[in-house]
């Protein structure tokens, strides 16, 4: 299990597979907390909070803020839906909803949300014997990607 207990999605708490919908859930929790000043689930310890999250929908934020605009309430409840199929299905959907909200409240002209980026993941499986040659090939690949306006991110992973 990995994550910050107070912001983990129900599927993280239950050690089920996670995807970007789990991050969207966490985003919804942060928005809830920013607006209400408290977390949706409070308990005596993190284990109690995680159990509540695994078994319950978040409380309606309008119970804390009766004059909460319906569109903001809807964003939070959809982002934090217990059932992943009821949540925003990807970050683009969530960003589109946030762009509409920001426009509704005059927070931005929405331009910040217009650029959509894609992420492609691939793994290099290699032995320590190939490390030196691999570094040169990655540097060359990175230069080609930069010429296309693509940012290459690399990090260490697990040993297989």
CATH class of the largest domain: Mainly Alpha
CATH superfamily of the largest domain: Transferase(Phosphotransferase) domain 1
How many domains is the backbone divided into? 2
| Strand proportion | under 5%
Annotation, overall tally of beta strands: 0
Major sheet attributes:
none
Backbone structural class: mainly alpha
Overall pLDDT score: 83
Q: In angstroms, what is the radius of gyration?
A: 20 Å
Poorly predicted runs of 5 or more residues: none
Total helical elements: 6
- Helix fraction, binned, reads 40-55%
Shape: extended
CATH hierarchy: architecture of the largest domain:
Orthogonal Bundle
CATH-derived topology of the largest domain: Transferase(Phosphotransferase), domain 1
Order of helices and strands: HHHHHH
N-C termini distance: 20 Å
Care to give the gist of this entry?
This protein has 160 residues and is an all-alpha fold. The chain is built from 6 helices and no strands.
Structural commentary:
This protein has 160 residues and is mainly alpha-helical. The protein folds into 2 domains: 5-113, Transferase(Phosphotransferase) domain 1 (Transferase(Phosphotransferase), domain 1), CATH 1.10.510; 117-160, no CATH class. The protein has 6 helices and no strands. It has helices at residues 10-13, 20-36, 46-55, 70-79, 91-104, 131-147. The longest helix has 17 residues, at 20-36. The two termini are 20 Å apart. The model has no long low-confidence stretch (mean pLDDT 83).
């Amino acid at each position: 299990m990995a994550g910050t207990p107070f912001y983990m999605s129900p599927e993280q708490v239950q050690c089920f597979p996670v995807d970007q919908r789990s991050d969207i859930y966490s985003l919804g929790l942060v928005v809830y907390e920013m607006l209400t000043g408290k977390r949706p689930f409070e308990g005596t310890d993190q284990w109690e909070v995680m159990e509540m999250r695994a078994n319950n929908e978040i409380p309606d934020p309008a119970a804390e803020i009766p004059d909460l605009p319906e569109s903001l309430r809807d964003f939070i409840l959809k982002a934090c839906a217990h059932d992943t199929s009821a949540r925003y299905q990807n970050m683009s959907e969530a960003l589109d909803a946030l762009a509409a909200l920001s426009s509704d409240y005059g927070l931005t002209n929405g331009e910040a949300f217009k650029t959509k980026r894609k992420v492609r993941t691939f793994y290099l499986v290699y032995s320590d014997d190939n490390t030196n040659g691999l570094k040169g090939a990655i540097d060359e690949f990175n230069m080609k990607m930069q010429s296309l306006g693509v940012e290459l991110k690399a990090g260490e992973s697990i040993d297989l």
